[in-house]
């Protein structure tokens, strides 16, 4: 990880709020000025529906000349974010009461198909997202009028929710659910001011107040009234008797409030603090302290047991080296010095696994570094996904280099391993994106799929081949012990060295150190929360990496003591459970927190959960291998040569 010390990370852990991407520009306004930075409309999203919809897939009033309000980057395309113009108009510091949105053409009326679409998305808890001056719209509080079974646990997530609900629902005495369309929004815009010096017509300096938007909130409601009467009946998603269409009055109100306590540089704190990661900072530190206790306990085991045992072993082996008769009584890891560096089963696959894991480790470290430096601000929509994707592609060079280098260590040189490595993990990931895009039928998703294909073919492949060519030209890694021609017979092993036990138990220790942070990341991925505590995440990544290294070293040492030299795959698969436990946690999260009913949404959830689980396993397994490899080389290099 690209950090100088834990102290540097500790100092950065608390500096996540108010740290923005360099180059962000304040937009000053004067009183009576038209706000040209919104409100814009974003996609319709749901914590239960998962699949995003374009805002105008519902029959809202839209401009005649509909235009994108923000250019999409790759991350926005892949996440389904699409910001478009709207008919909402705000004037700086001018309050509006019950302003009517004038619909044109067929948008003014809803037929049965339109109402059924509203009913479906209301039932799945979809929310309409909006943007003003690059700030997402927040709902002041959860919708208290939603009383149907579907919304009874709505308060469990957070106090402020991004976007406004498409509608609400309620259950009658017969437990029949009725859905109501939210056609009115009470917007609340908070602003701050500062004095700015300008030149007047006479060339003299005068002070003029400039205003900046610092908060954007809204409260939706259903009012079947053109004068926004709060006591008017709600608009249900059913056609009136004897009519084929329903005319909905779309209205909104705007209230401007001066907020001197919130500055432009800290205006995103409302969004960062609305998530569990931002609210529960005390719990964050407590869980991190627990993880540190786990690391210190493991370090104590390694320090007081493993190192002590190694010193005794090395002293005995080196003393016996001078007494040839005592060599007949050798036992333990000294006996397998001629086999310990024997290539593992399926060495080509092993090289490909470590190469891919190295690529993912490099990507993770680089992304965390950029995040700590503030380049991945939540105000830069799609920036995290875009940067992660491009860094992953650039790290293909190290994938090819490590794959070739390990092959050279095993006296092999096969280009087909490099190509298979190129096709398997990225290929399956790309296929998942492509299939999802085809089912969702979102144009931007298909454009992103074509861009991914271009990056995969014309950037990732040349870098992978270049890295492999460079690795093949390097001298092979020289191990401290040569390999005997004949394989040594491996004695019968205890049950706790069996493959199922090794794949399940050792990974429990590092996963326990990261369990709390994983829950927060799941909320950020699937519940639309803002995750920006990258200081904590970096510390957890460091702690988990140390835990993995200590666990794998301890496991490999006792395997070698048992005279089993097949440690290569053991070091990798000992961390298989880390990915497995993440997948299991996600399944529990899916069934206990989310309320997904769509088969497509279920496919998306489990497909990408499986990809993340494999990624976690590859990262953890590669860290485990590198630490074990260094450990084995050190202890066998310390022996006197016979």
Provide a short characterization of the protein structure.
This protein is α+β, with helices and mostly antiparallel strands and 642 residues long.
Key attributes of the depicted protein:
642 residues, alpha+beta, six-stranded mixed sheet, 17 helices, 47% helix
Describe the structure.
This protein has about 650 residues and is an alpha+beta fold. Helix content is about 45%, strand content about 15%. It is built from 17 helices and 15 strands. It has a 6-stranded mixed beta sheet with strand order 2-15-11-12-6-7, with no helix packed on it. Strands 1, 4, 5 and 8 form a 4-stranded antiparallel beta sheet that branches. A 3-stranded antiparallel beta sheet has the order 9-10-13, with helices on one face. A hairpin with a 5-residue loop joins strand 11 (about 185-200) and strand 12. Helix 6 (about 280-320) packs antiparallel against helix 13 (about 510-525), helix 10 runs antiparallel to helix 17 (about 600-635) and helix 15 packs across helix 17 (about 600-635). The longest helix has about 40 residues, at about 280-320.
What's the topology here?
Blueprint: H1 6-13, E1 40-45, H2 74-79, E2 96-100, E3 109-111, H3 112-123, E4 127-132, E5 135-136, E6 138-139, E7 161-162, E8 164-165, E9 167-171, E10 177-181, E11 184-199, E12 205-221, E13 235-236, E14 245-247, E15 251-258, H4 269-272, H5 276-279, H6 281-321, H7 347-372, H8 383-394, H9 396-409, H10 415-440, H11 443-473, H12 499-504, H13 508-526, H14 534-561, H15 567-573, H16 576-592, H17 599-637
């Amino acid at each position: 990880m690209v950090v100088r010390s834990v102290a540097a990370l500790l100092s950065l852990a608390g500096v996540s709020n108010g740290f923005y991407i360099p180059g962000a520009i304040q937009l000053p306004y004067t009183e009576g000025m038209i706000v040209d930075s919104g409100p814009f409309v974003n996609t319709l999203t749901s914590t239960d529906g998962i699949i995003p919809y374009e805002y105008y897939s519902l029959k809202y009033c839209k401009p005649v000349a509909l235009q994108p309000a923000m250019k999409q980057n790759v991350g926005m395309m892949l996440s389904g974010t699409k910001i478009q113009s709207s008919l909402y108009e705000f004037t700086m510091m001018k309050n509006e009461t019950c302003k009517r949105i004038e619909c044109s053409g067929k948008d003014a009326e809803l037929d049965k198909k339109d109402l059924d679409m509203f009913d479906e998305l209301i039932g799945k808890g979809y929310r309409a997202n909006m943007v003003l001056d690059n700030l997402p719209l927040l709902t002041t509080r959860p919708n208290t009028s939603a009383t149907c079974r579907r919304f009874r646990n709505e308060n469990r997530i957070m106090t402020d929710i991004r976007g406004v609900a498409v509608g609400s629902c309620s259950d009658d005495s017969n437990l029949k659910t009725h859905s109501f369309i939210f056609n009115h929004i009470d917007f609340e815009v908070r602003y701050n001011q500062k004095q700015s010096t300008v030149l007047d017509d006479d060339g003299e300096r005068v002070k003029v107040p400039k205003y900046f938007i610092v908060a954007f909130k809204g409260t939706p409601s259903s009012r079947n009234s053109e004068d926004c009467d709060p006591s008017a009946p709600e608009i249900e998603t059913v056609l009136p008797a004897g009519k084929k269409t329903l005319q909905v009055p779309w209205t909104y109100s705007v209230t401007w409030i001066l907020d001197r306590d919130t500055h432009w540089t800290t205006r995103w704190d409302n969004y960062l603090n609305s998530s569990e990661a931002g609210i529960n900072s005390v719990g964050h530190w407590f869980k991190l302290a627990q993880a540190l206790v786990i690391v210190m306990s493991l370090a104590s085991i390694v320090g007081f047991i493993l190192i002590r045992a190694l010193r005794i072993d090395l002293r005995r082996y080196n003393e016996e080296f001078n007494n040839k008769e005592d060599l007949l009584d050798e036992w333990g890891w000294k006996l397998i010095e001629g086999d310990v560096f024997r290539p593992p089963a399926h060495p080509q696959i092993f090289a490909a696994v470590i190469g891919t894991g190295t690529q993912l480790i490099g990507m993770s470290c680089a992304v965390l570094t950029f995040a700590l430096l503030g380049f991945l601000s939540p105000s830069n929509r799609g920036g995290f996904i875009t940067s992660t994707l491009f860094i992953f592609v650039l790290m293909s060079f190290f994938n090819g280099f490590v794959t070739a280098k390990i092959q050279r260590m095993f006296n092999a040189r096969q280009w087909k391993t490099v190509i298979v490595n190129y096709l398997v993990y990225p290929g399956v990931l790309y296929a998942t994106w492509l299939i999802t895009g085809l089912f969702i039928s979102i144009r931007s998703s298909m454009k992103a799929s074509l861009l991914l294909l271009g990056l995969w073919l014309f950037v990732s492949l040349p870098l992978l081949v270049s890295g492999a060519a460079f690795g093949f030209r390097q001298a092979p890694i020289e191990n401290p012990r040569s390999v005997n021609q004949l394989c040594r017979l491996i004695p019968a092993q205890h049950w706790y060295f069996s493959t199922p036990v090794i794949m399940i138990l050792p990974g429990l220790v590092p996963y326990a150190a990261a369990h709390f942070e994983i829950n927060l990341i799941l909320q950020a991925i699937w519940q639309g929360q803002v995750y920006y505590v990258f200081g904590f995440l970096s510390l957890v990544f460091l702690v988990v990496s140390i835990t993995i290294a200590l666990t794998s070293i301890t496991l490999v040492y006792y395997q070698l003591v048992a005279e089993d030299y097949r440690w290569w795959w053991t070091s990798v698969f000992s961390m298989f459970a880390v990915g497995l436990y993440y997948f299991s946690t996600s399944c529990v999260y899916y069934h206990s927190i989310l309320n997904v009913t769509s088969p497509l949404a279920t496919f998306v959830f489990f497909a990408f959960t499986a990809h993340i689980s494999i990624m976690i396993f590859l990262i953890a397994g590669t860290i485990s291998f590198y630490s074990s490899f260094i450990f084995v080389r050190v202890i066998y290099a310390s022996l006197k040569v016979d």
